[in-house]
Amino acid sequence: MTDPLGRHWQQPADIREAPMDDMHVLLTPRQIDGLLDYSRSYPSGTYDGKCWKREGEDCWYLCWYEPHAQAGKIGIGYRTILKIIEDNEGPAT
After folding, report:
1. Quick check: 57 and 39 in contact, CB under 8 A?
2. Nearest to residue 89, comparing CAs of 29, 34, 14?
3. Which residues contact 64 (CB under 8 A, 6 or more apart)?
4. Where do the H-state alpha helices sit in 1-93?
5. Bridge-partner residues for 51, per DSSP?
């Protein structure tokens, strides 16, 4: 997260380095578990780079606050989470 006011927000330190394209993001189980679940609401404190997970109908999403083109507003970016298994976590399922 880039805003110093968000220093108490819990999210994986390496979340911004996760590989993603226009639709998906690849996250490890550790990264997924490190995100707070806001499936029924939105986090308060809208800081650029603040990330959370949100449950969809048949998948999970990585969501984040991002700059908006209109002054005074904040955008919300999101990607479908694809879970990856790291070599030291056992075989892929």
Report:
1. no
2. 29
3. 49, 50, 51, 52, 76, 77, 78
4. 29-33
5. 64
For 66, which DSSP code? E
Task: Give the pair of three-digit tokens for residue 88.
Answer: 């030291």
Is the dihedral angle over the CA atoms 21, 85, 61, 69 positive or is it negative? negative
pTM of the complete model: 0.85
pLDDT tens sequence for the chain (93 residues): 566 767 778 899 999 899 999 999 999 999 999 999 999 999 998 988 999 999 999 999 999 999 999 999 999 999 999 999 866 655 554
Q: Is the dihedral of CA 11, 72, 22, 78 positive or negative?
A: positive
Which amino acid, 76? I
Query: Can you tell me whether residue 27 is helix, strand or coil?
Result: strand
Selection from 29, 93, 38, 32 nearest residue 65 by Cα: 38
